[in-house]
Every structure is written in structure tokens, then in C-alpha cells.
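Forwarding the complex inputs:
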Amino acid sequence: MQLFAYNPIGQPDELLLWVGVLGVEAPSLPCFQIDGQVVQPVAINYPFEPLGDEVLNDCGRPLNHRAIFSFQWPDTAERFAITVTMGARTVMLTSKRPPTTLPTKNENSFNVLLTSCYYQPNDRARSLAQLTNAIKPAPDFTLLAGDQVYLDLPSQQNLPREKNSLARALGKKYQYNWFCDELSQPGLAKVLGHGPVLCIPDDHEFWNNFPLFQVQLINTHRVCDRDNWRDAALRLYERYQMSPAQSQGFYRWDLAPLSMLFLDGRTCRDSGGSSMFNRATHAAIKQWKDDLLLRKKNNQPAVGLLSSGQALVVEKPGMWDRHIADMEMVNYCDFSLIQHALKELFAAEIPVIYITGDVHWGRILEGKNHRGKCLFYEVIASPSRLIDTLGSDQKNIIKNKFRYVLGEPLPFPKHPEAPAELPVFKLANLELQTLHRQQGDHVALLRFNAVPGGLEFYVDYVCTDPDEKKQRVHSSTQGPFKLLSQ
Amino acid sequence: MIKQTLSTESVSQSDVQKLIRIKREANLDWLKRAYNSFAIEDVSQWSFIVLAGGKDVAAFRLRVAQSRLRGDMLPSFWSECALFKISHEDFSSSVFCNLPLFQPANLSYAPTRNGLVELPLNKLPTQKDYPNLALLAIPVPQELILQSLEEYKKARVSYDAVENILPWLAYVWGSGDATNPLMKQIGFPSAVMLNQVFSARGFDLAPGVNSYLSTPEMFWSGVKHWQDYYSKTQENGLLPKARFVIDHVYDIDES
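Prediction (whole assembly, two chains):
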């Protein structure tokens, strides 16, 4: 039997625990302890259900399951320990009840760990979790902003076409990342174990540039194969990553003056460029914008935070690029909903922060209106562990050898650099400027405090390269950035 | 030291056994005996990898290069690895497939076959050249591995094996300022190729290191120390096995 548990974010009044069990046909109710005291769940949001990896016993019954339990928050504002026990297996994790409003400047900041793009086979030199767990101040909330698994890698893999075999092959990748402690392997277990956690999906939760077919991925050429892959990957995403609180396609969380909206722009995306969000998400974007405008109207400070699995300020790929590169958000008709919402908010001088991963480089972008008022920041942190790009990796290393001879080696020869030039991208006529560019494996810690009229935040870019020297040289604090609506 | 992940689970059950040579048993005979000693019921579910350790200068440099991956910093026992493609139980047409650093002059232009070489069984160097030998039985059907190998052969666009060979050759020959390629994150070509081919079929031959750092030493470490990992990740319940003979170690005295 293998056991894992983590704390996905729920509604503000509920502490959720996801419990996964491998190798058991009928899992029993686990025993839960909070800070050493036995506790009972107040509800079972989802009883033990198959994880969707189609691992069956000899009688054809599923062996791998997950359940989601709901608890009352313990009466403490500090981080607390949770122990989940089933049989002889025990998993330990921690959580902390989020505040109801953003702390003011004389209090400890509210800290959001932003991480994305995690490729487990390249995490063996020094695990990402070792580095993120050492971050000070400790995160209060962890956002995994897409590509928590790379179901389509390694690129040479020959995935089976038969539906159940395919689900087993894809499920194995989740097992490596979620149940890694049981395997003595690096993985996301100890990143997820620092709750509460929210996972947003991006394309590699399915395959590169999902749902479009990819030339290099044979299993995406035929409609029936794409359907099989989508169904298996979607089930795995729902069972492993999706919190019940985001089942409608978004997660809304208000910590006044900050109003946060996390969007799933991937699982409902069509291949023609029509829509990437479902109807409930369309309504949620409008509601989020209206609520911010109302706060402003009521003379309350208001700042928006928007997050999805892709970058906002990117060049719009052309028709041909869509198939050989990635479809970006800007390619979709319902991107206009975001554009219009931002336009209205900026017109009312309500600032917005956009945070994401996806692009394999990091960046902070600032946007000011014609009066010089700062209304927009985009913060990107990607990757936490870079994928292999065979061929180009080798060439880059060799090229770097020549640079070494000339005395100018690149610190991260495999990683792309954030573009020096900004794309031609209209964002409500804001004047955009790049403030920081980050290269190499990294995560970002965003530290928020409320200030009169809005908020102030810092971004700690934490280099997660296994090399300690690079960690020192390429980690930095950016900010403070002040966003005021009044 | 090159940073890696160490297995923390104790090995409960493992079919990794020393198989000493009978008198001056030839490598070929040892291999046949090692293969038979596995007593595999359904051979179609398995593939085989050979690790070999030489004792000439090139092998010395390759074995020392891999000491960076060992906790004791001693030279590896191994300087080469290859897929042992078994066609018939009697080995009559079996071959070794690998990416040798020293490409044979009588074969076609290396880039057209992505450096891949097939060596007939009777060309296996003698026990004098390769005193150390290990046969690894990996629970992935050979038929699937051979399919992936065919695709790999034509895949220079996605994986340039030849380019990977050059830094190793430079290191072995001591060319210019060539240093240990492992320190530049360049794995041993044959091992990187084999791990890619097996990873394509869902089996990680080197669970302790990043995917691009594969070496014969890490395959050895995988089969010796990662049995618990395999027992939890192998769908078919089959675990890798190994037979080995080590007749050459360097005389290093720490007393």
C-alpha cells in the first residue's frame, strides 16, 4: 500500500484533505490528527473513488483511490501539523488557515509561493521540495500554476492507444510526482505537503498545446486517440489536482483589498480558437470585475489578482504558428472577456496583478496609464524543473563550451531567456515595461501587505538550481511594488 | 560529487547475484550461463543489458569519470553498456547494440545511423579485455525496445547521439582542456541512448540521476539499490534481475 495526503484549498471555512491510497481495493477511513489530537472529518466531500489510472486487481476492481475530507480549522493562526494514518503508513503535512483580510504593513506579510512547470526526471540532483521548504518567510499559500505533470514526455515515448493501457501509462506519471516519498524519489509531495495548495492546469496536464493535435505525438493524430487521451488525462487531473472549490472551472478568493480569481483555461478549451473558459468562468470573470468596481464605488481599496496557466502579455501566434507552437490565450475569442474586464478596471484606476508560469522563463512586467499611475503587474515564474529538449539541449551545452573558452559562459545554457523586447500587445493602452527577467529553474514568493488605498508587494525570485553558487547569484528580491486604487 | 537522489528504502528482495567464472570461463560462456541462471519463464516480457568493465587506459578513464557518481569515490566497475538483443535461446544470431565511442571504420557514416552499432556476439571482447561483466534482465518486452531503437536510429533531429560522443572521446583521449563530461551534464552516450529507449517504454534505468546523466554505473546502482522503487512502479510485478562477475578492481589502499 502507498499513502499520500495534501491540503487543497477549499472554501474559507473548510480545511480540506486529499488522501490517496495505492494498492488497496477498499480503503478504510484513515485516522487524522491535528497537532497530535485525533480529529474527525465534518464531511466527506468525495468518498474513496478510483484515481482514474485503471490499475485493477485480478478481479477487475480498481486498486488506486482518492478521497477528499473536510475538517474544521483548528483554533490557531499558526501553521499546524496534520498526520494521516492508514494501516502502517503515515503521511505528515502542514497547513495554516489563511487570513480573512490582507495583513497590514506592521504585520507579517501574506506569502504566496508561485511555482510551475515541474519535470520530475530532472529533479534528482537536489529536489525542488528541499529548496522550497527552506524558503523564508514560509509561504502561506502555494499556487502550482500549470504543468505539474508532463503527460506527453519523454517525447519519444510510445503511449498505448488502448484506453485503459493509456490511462495506466499516464497515471504512472502522477504516481511519480504525488507518491514520490513512497518511492524515495523527488517529486511534488513535499511541495504539496505545505498547504493550502491550489493547482491550475495547463497543456501538459494533457499534451503540448492541448487540445490541438501535435505532429510529434502520434496519439494525437486521430480524433479517437485524442478523445481517449483527453478523457484519461482529464479524469487524472480531476482526481489528483482539482479541489472541489474549483470544480466550476475557477477559484475565487477575496482577501480585502485583494480579490483573486484563478482560472482554468485549459480543460474546456476548444481547438478552433472560440473559447477556453466554460460559461461559469465567463460569469466569474464578470462578477470579479463588478465586485472590484463596487468596492471602488464604495470608497474601499480594491486590487485584483488574476491567474491562469498561460502568460497574458505575449505575441499573438499566427494561423500556422498555432500548430507548430502553442495557441496562446490571445488566440481565443473569449480572451476579450479578460481584455474588457481589465480595460474597465484600469479605466476606473483599479490595479490588477497577473501571475502565471508556462513559458520557461521568469519576468516582472509593469504597466502604467497615460498619467503615469501604475495599474498592472505581470509576474511569471517558470520552470521549477526544466524539461529536456533533446538535441537543442546538447547544442546549447556545446555552444556554451565555446563561450566558456571566451570567458563568458551562460549560467543556464539549456533555459530560454525572457524576451528582451515586449510584444506588440495592447493592454488598455497601458505603457508596459519589463522590470526584471529571470532565467534558470526558479520559483517566486510574492509577499503582500495592505497599505492605505491598496497594497504593496515584493517578489522573491528563488533560484532552484541544484548549484548553491547559482542559487546565491540568481536569487533576488524585487520590489516593493505599490498598487493603489485610491 | 555529482548530486543525485539516493534510495532510502531497504531492499527486501532482490535477484542480483554474483556469478563467479568457472575457471577461465570466456565472456560468451559466462553470459550464456548468467542468462540461463535467471530461469525466466516468459522471455518475451524481458530485455537484457550488458555492462562491461575494461582495464585499458580508455576504460580506466571512463571508470574514473563515473567515480563522481559513487559515494565511495572509487572507480566504477563498468566502462561500457549495450543492449543484448537475443534472437534465439541458443544466442545464434544475438547481437549487442550500443553507441561506441570508437566507431568502427567498416560501417556506414555514423550520423546516418545516429551512431548506433550492432556487434555480433562472437565479437564480444574476451575476459582479458573485459574482466568485469554484468547481465541485467529488465522487465520490458524486447520487442518494444527494438521498436523504440529503430525509431531512435532515425531520430538524429531530436537526439543527436553523435554530438554526445565527441566530448567523451575528447575526454578519453585527453584532448585539449577536455574535462569529465559528466561535470557538464553530458551522460555516457550508450547509457543515455538506452535510458531514453527504456524510458519511452516507461522504465527508468537510472532512477538516481537526472535523465541526461545516465551511465553504466547508474544502471548498476539502479538494479542494486532501487528494487523497492521498481516494486512500486512496475505494473507487471516483474523486477529487474542481475548476474555479475567482477574480476578487476584498481588497487587503492586507504589503510
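The helical segments of chain B are 27-37, 57-65, 142-153, 161-173, 189-199, 216-225, 227-233.
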